[in-house]
Amino acid sequence: MSAGVKLTAMAATLVLAFGWGALHKPADFQPEYDQDNATLDALPPLPAWAMADLPDFTDYHDTAEKKAAFFSFLYPRIVLANTRVLMLRDNLEILERKPKLTGQEMAWLKRQAKRLRVDADIASPEMYEVLNRRLDVIPPSLIMAQAANESAWGTSRFATQGNNLFGQWCFTKGCGLVPRSRVEGATHEVAAFASPYESIRAYITNINRHDSYQALRNTREQAREKDRFPGGVALAQGLIGYSERGAAYVEEIQAMIRHNNLGYYDKEYKALIGSSNTLPELLRLATGDESAFTPGGIAKSEG
Known about the structure:
signal, Bax-like, MGlyc_endo_b_GlcNAc-like_dom, Bax protein
Protein backbone atom coordinates (compact mmCIF):
# COMPACT_ATOMS: atom_id res chain seq x y z
CA MET A 1 0.00 0.00 0.00
CA SER A 2 1.42 3.42 -0.96
CA ALA A 3 2.08 6.12 1.66
CA GLY A 4 -0.69 8.27 0.19
CA VAL A 5 -3.22 5.45 0.35
CA LYS A 6 -2.20 4.68 3.93
CA LEU A 7 -2.71 8.30 4.97
CA THR A 8 -6.10 8.45 3.28
CA ALA A 9 -7.16 5.21 4.93
CA MET A 10 -5.95 6.43 8.32
CA ALA A 11 -7.83 9.67 7.84
CA ALA A 12 -11.03 7.79 7.06
CA THR A 13 -10.52 5.63 10.15
CA LEU A 14 -10.00 8.69 12.32
CA VAL A 15 -13.20 10.29 11.07
CA LEU A 16 -15.10 7.17 11.94
CA ALA A 17 -13.31 6.77 15.26
CA PHE A 18 -14.20 9.54 16.68
CA GLY A 19 -6.04 25.25 32.57
CA TRP A 20 -5.32 28.05 32.36
CA GLY A 21 -7.25 31.31 32.51
CA ALA A 22 -6.69 35.03 32.36
CA LEU A 23 -3.58 36.22 34.17
CA HIS A 24 -2.11 32.72 33.80
CA LYS A 25 -4.59 30.98 36.12
CA PRO A 26 -5.62 27.59 34.70
CA ALA A 27 -8.60 25.74 36.09
CA ASP A 28 -7.61 22.36 34.72
CA PHE A 29 -5.46 20.51 32.22
CA GLN A 30 -6.55 17.76 29.86
CA PRO A 31 -4.16 15.60 27.82
CA GLU A 32 -4.35 16.11 24.08
CA TYR A 33 -3.54 12.51 23.33
CA ASP A 34 -3.95 9.39 25.42
CA GLN A 35 -1.45 6.74 24.31
CA ASP A 36 -3.80 4.06 25.62
CA ASN A 37 -6.71 5.26 23.49
CA ALA A 38 -5.75 5.77 19.84
CA THR A 39 -9.12 7.27 18.93
CA LEU A 40 -9.16 10.04 21.54
CA ASP A 41 -10.07 13.32 19.82
CA ALA A 42 -9.54 11.67 16.44
CA LEU A 43 -5.85 12.60 16.44
CA PRO A 44 -2.80 10.49 15.54
CA PRO A 45 0.01 9.98 18.07
CA LEU A 46 2.38 12.90 18.38
CA PRO A 47 5.63 12.56 16.40
CA ALA A 48 8.61 11.86 18.64
CA TRP A 49 10.29 15.19 17.86
CA ALA A 50 7.36 17.09 19.37
CA MET A 51 8.31 15.83 22.83
CA ALA A 52 11.87 17.19 22.78
CA ASP A 53 12.93 19.34 25.71
CA LEU A 54 13.70 23.02 25.42
CA PRO A 55 17.21 23.77 24.13
CA ASP A 56 19.61 25.72 26.32
CA PHE A 57 19.23 29.22 24.94
CA THR A 58 21.64 30.62 27.52
CA ASP A 59 24.43 29.21 25.35
CA TYR A 60 23.81 31.98 22.83
CA HIS A 61 25.73 35.19 23.42
CA ASP A 62 24.65 36.89 20.21
CA THR A 63 21.11 38.26 20.59
CA ALA A 64 20.22 37.85 16.94
CA GLU A 65 21.37 34.22 16.94
CA LYS A 66 19.43 33.50 20.15
CA LYS A 67 16.24 34.96 18.67
CA ALA A 68 16.64 33.03 15.42
CA ALA A 69 17.21 29.78 17.33
CA PHE A 70 14.25 30.43 19.61
CA PHE A 71 11.85 31.11 16.75
CA SER A 72 13.19 28.21 14.68
CA PHE A 73 12.54 25.84 17.58
CA LEU A 74 9.03 27.17 18.25
CA TYR A 75 7.73 27.40 14.69
CA PRO A 76 7.47 23.64 13.90
CA ARG A 77 5.73 23.02 17.22
CA ILE A 78 3.28 25.85 16.64
CA VAL A 79 2.49 24.53 13.17
CA LEU A 80 1.99 21.03 14.57
CA ALA A 81 -0.34 22.25 17.32
CA ASN A 82 -2.35 24.36 14.88
CA THR A 83 -2.51 21.50 12.38
CA ARG A 84 -4.03 19.23 14.99
CA VAL A 85 -6.57 21.93 15.83
CA LEU A 86 -7.50 22.11 12.15
CA MET A 87 -7.93 18.33 12.06
CA LEU A 88 -10.45 18.59 14.89
CA ARG A 89 -12.15 21.51 13.15
CA ASP A 90 -12.36 19.50 9.92
CA ASN A 91 -14.00 16.63 11.75
CA LEU A 92 -16.41 19.06 13.41
CA GLU A 93 -17.50 20.35 10.01
CA ILE A 94 -18.01 16.80 8.77
CA LEU A 95 -20.27 16.00 11.71
CA GLU A 96 -22.18 19.25 11.33
CA ARG A 97 -23.19 18.23 7.79
CA LYS A 98 -24.44 14.80 8.84
CA PRO A 99 -28.21 14.43 9.34
CA LYS A 100 -27.73 11.88 12.11
CA LEU A 101 -24.79 11.11 14.40
CA THR A 102 -23.67 7.84 15.93
CA GLY A 103 -23.21 7.45 19.66
CA GLN A 104 -19.45 7.62 19.19
CA GLU A 105 -19.73 10.87 17.25
CA MET A 106 -21.99 12.36 19.90
CA ALA A 107 -19.42 11.38 22.55
CA TRP A 108 -16.69 13.13 20.52
CA LEU A 109 -18.76 16.32 20.41
CA LYS A 110 -19.34 16.08 24.14
CA ARG A 111 -15.59 15.79 24.77
CA GLN A 112 -14.87 18.84 22.64
CA ALA A 113 -17.61 20.82 24.35
CA LYS A 114 -16.21 19.94 27.78
CA ARG A 115 -12.63 20.73 26.78
CA LEU A 116 -13.57 24.08 25.23
CA ARG A 117 -16.20 24.91 27.88
CA VAL A 118 -19.20 25.08 25.59
CA ASP A 119 -22.48 24.93 27.48
CA ALA A 120 -25.05 23.91 24.87
CA ASP A 121 -27.07 20.88 23.87
CA ILE A 122 -25.02 18.24 22.09
CA ALA A 123 -25.17 18.60 18.28
CA SER A 124 -27.39 21.69 18.53
CA PRO A 125 -26.87 24.63 16.15
CA GLU A 126 -25.66 26.66 19.13
CA MET A 127 -23.00 24.07 20.00
CA TYR A 128 -21.72 23.93 16.43
CA GLU A 129 -21.61 27.72 16.25
CA VAL A 130 -19.59 28.12 19.45
CA LEU A 131 -17.29 25.16 18.72
CA ASN A 132 -16.52 26.56 15.27
CA ARG A 133 -15.56 29.83 16.93
CA ARG A 134 -13.37 28.20 19.56
CA LEU A 135 -11.80 25.37 17.57
CA ASP A 136 -9.43 27.43 15.46
CA VAL A 137 -5.76 28.32 15.07
CA ILE A 138 -3.64 31.04 16.66
CA PRO A 139 -1.18 32.86 14.35
CA PRO A 140 2.47 31.88 14.95
CA SER A 141 3.52 35.51 15.39
CA LEU A 142 1.31 35.96 18.44
CA ILE A 143 2.43 32.71 20.07
CA MET A 144 6.10 33.51 19.43
CA ALA A 145 5.89 37.03 20.83
CA GLN A 146 4.11 35.92 24.00
CA ALA A 147 6.45 32.97 24.49
CA ALA A 148 9.48 35.25 24.16
CA ASN A 149 7.95 37.79 26.52
CA GLU A 150 6.77 35.36 29.17
CA SER A 151 9.80 33.03 29.17
CA ALA A 152 12.60 35.59 28.69
CA TRP A 153 13.43 33.99 25.34
CA GLY A 154 13.31 30.49 26.78
CA THR A 155 15.71 31.20 29.66
CA SER A 156 13.36 31.66 32.63
CA ARG A 157 13.36 29.18 35.50
CA PHE A 158 9.88 28.00 34.57
CA ALA A 159 10.90 27.46 30.95
CA THR A 160 14.15 25.63 31.64
CA GLN A 161 12.87 23.49 34.51
CA GLY A 162 9.23 23.04 33.50
CA ASN A 163 9.06 23.58 29.73
CA ASN A 164 6.57 26.34 30.53
CA LEU A 165 6.76 29.15 27.97
CA PHE A 166 3.69 31.17 29.00
CA GLY A 167 3.65 31.15 32.80
CA GLN A 168 0.57 28.92 33.07
CA TRP A 169 -0.51 28.25 36.64
CA CYS A 170 -1.88 25.06 38.22
CA PHE A 171 -3.42 24.45 41.64
CA THR A 172 -2.64 20.85 42.60
CA LYS A 173 0.31 20.42 44.96
CA GLY A 174 3.28 19.14 43.01
CA CYS A 175 1.83 20.02 39.60
CA GLY A 176 4.66 22.42 38.83
CA LEU A 177 7.21 24.81 40.30
CA VAL A 178 6.51 27.00 43.32
CA PRO A 179 7.14 30.67 42.48
CA ARG A 180 9.78 32.19 44.74
CA SER A 181 7.66 35.31 45.03
CA ARG A 182 4.44 33.48 45.96
CA VAL A 183 2.67 35.27 48.78
CA GLU A 184 1.95 33.49 52.03
CA GLY A 185 -1.27 31.52 51.89
CA ALA A 186 -1.29 31.18 48.09
CA THR A 187 -1.38 27.64 46.70
CA HIS A 188 -0.75 28.07 42.98
CA GLU A 189 2.28 26.69 41.19
CA VAL A 190 3.65 27.39 37.73
CA ALA A 191 2.74 24.31 35.72
CA ALA A 192 5.39 21.89 34.50
CA PHE A 193 4.93 20.32 31.07
CA ALA A 194 6.42 17.22 29.49
CA SER A 195 7.64 19.35 26.58
CA PRO A 196 7.44 22.88 25.18
CA TYR A 197 4.90 21.54 22.69
CA GLU A 198 2.54 20.71 25.54
CA SER A 199 2.91 24.26 26.85
CA ILE A 200 2.06 25.65 23.40
CA ARG A 201 -0.92 23.36 23.13
CA ALA A 202 -2.21 24.44 26.56
CA TYR A 203 -1.78 28.09 25.58
CA ILE A 204 -3.84 27.61 22.40
CA THR A 205 -6.56 25.82 24.35
CA ASN A 206 -6.68 28.64 26.88
CA ILE A 207 -6.96 31.37 24.25
CA ASN A 208 -9.68 29.36 22.51
CA ARG A 209 -11.90 28.83 25.53
CA HIS A 210 -11.43 31.48 28.22
CA ASP A 211 -14.03 34.23 28.45
CA SER A 212 -11.30 36.88 28.71
CA TYR A 213 -10.32 36.30 25.08
CA GLN A 214 -13.77 36.45 23.48
CA ALA A 215 -12.79 39.65 21.64
CA LEU A 216 -9.76 37.90 20.14
CA ARG A 217 -11.91 35.03 18.92
CA ASN A 218 -14.45 37.46 17.45
CA THR A 219 -11.71 39.21 15.47
CA ARG A 220 -10.43 35.86 14.24
CA GLU A 221 -13.91 34.77 13.20
CA GLN A 222 -14.49 38.02 11.29
CA ALA A 223 -11.23 37.51 9.42
CA ARG A 224 -12.16 33.92 8.53
CA GLU A 225 -15.55 35.06 7.23
CA LYS A 226 -13.69 37.41 4.87
CA ASP A 227 -11.36 34.56 3.84
CA ARG A 228 -8.40 36.28 5.49
CA PHE A 229 -5.74 34.92 7.81
CA PRO A 230 -5.78 36.94 11.06
CA GLY A 231 -2.39 38.38 11.96
CA GLY A 232 -0.87 38.47 15.41
CA VAL A 233 -0.90 42.26 15.70
CA ALA A 234 -4.66 42.40 15.14
CA LEU A 235 -5.45 39.51 17.47
CA ALA A 236 -3.19 40.88 20.20
CA GLN A 237 -5.79 43.57 20.80
CA GLY A 238 -7.92 40.83 22.36
CA LEU A 239 -5.31 40.12 25.05
CA ILE A 240 -6.30 43.05 27.25
CA GLY A 241 -7.19 40.63 30.05
CA TYR A 242 -4.07 38.48 29.72
CA SER A 243 -1.94 40.60 32.00
CA GLU A 244 -2.58 43.00 34.85
CA ARG A 245 -0.68 45.52 32.73
CA GLY A 246 -3.63 45.62 30.33
CA ALA A 247 -3.13 47.88 27.32
CA ALA A 248 0.58 48.32 28.03
CA TYR A 249 1.07 44.56 27.73
CA VAL A 250 -0.86 44.44 24.46
CA GLU A 251 1.26 47.24 23.01
CA GLU A 252 4.43 45.46 24.09
CA ILE A 253 3.40 42.23 22.36
CA GLN A 254 2.46 44.12 19.21
CA ALA A 255 5.82 45.91 19.27
CA MET A 256 7.65 42.59 19.61
CA ILE A 257 5.79 41.20 16.60
CA ARG A 258 6.67 44.22 14.50
CA HIS A 259 10.27 44.61 15.65
CA ASN A 260 11.09 40.93 15.08
CA ASN A 261 9.09 40.78 11.83
CA LEU A 262 7.12 37.81 13.16
CA GLY A 263 4.44 38.38 10.56
CA TYR A 264 6.88 36.53 8.29
CA TYR A 265 6.01 33.30 10.10
CA ASP A 266 2.29 33.96 9.65
CA LYS A 267 2.86 34.20 5.89
CA GLU A 268 4.95 31.02 5.90
CA TYR A 269 2.26 29.20 7.85
CA LYS A 270 -0.50 30.40 5.56
CA ALA A 271 1.50 29.23 2.53
CA LEU A 272 2.18 25.86 4.16
CA ILE A 273 -1.46 25.17 4.98
CA GLY A 274 -2.72 26.62 1.70
CA SER A 275 -6.32 27.14 0.73
CA SER A 276 -7.08 23.42 0.97
CA ASN A 277 -6.79 21.70 4.34
CA THR A 278 -8.56 18.38 3.98
CA LEU A 279 -8.06 15.75 6.64
CA PRO A 280 -5.63 13.59 4.59
CA GLU A 281 -3.46 16.63 3.87
CA LEU A 282 -3.50 17.74 7.50
CA LEU A 283 -2.71 14.21 8.60
CA ARG A 284 0.36 14.23 6.37
CA LEU A 285 1.57 17.37 8.14
CA ALA A 286 0.69 16.10 11.61
CA THR A 287 2.73 12.92 11.15
CA GLY A 288 5.66 14.41 9.23
CA ASP A 289 9.23 15.16 10.19
CA GLU A 290 10.16 18.37 11.94
CA SER A 291 12.00 19.47 8.81
CA ALA A 292 8.67 19.61 6.96
CA PHE A 293 7.79 22.72 8.98
CA THR A 294 11.03 24.61 8.39
CA PRO A 295 10.21 28.05 6.96
CA GLY A 296 11.72 29.03 3.62
CA GLY A 297 13.99 31.69 5.10
CA ILE A 298 14.78 33.68 8.21
CA ALA A 299 12.71 36.58 9.46
CA LYS A 300 14.71 39.81 9.44
CA SER A 301 14.36 42.22 12.31
CA GLU A 302 12.92 45.58 11.43
CA GLY A 303 15.10 47.40 13.94
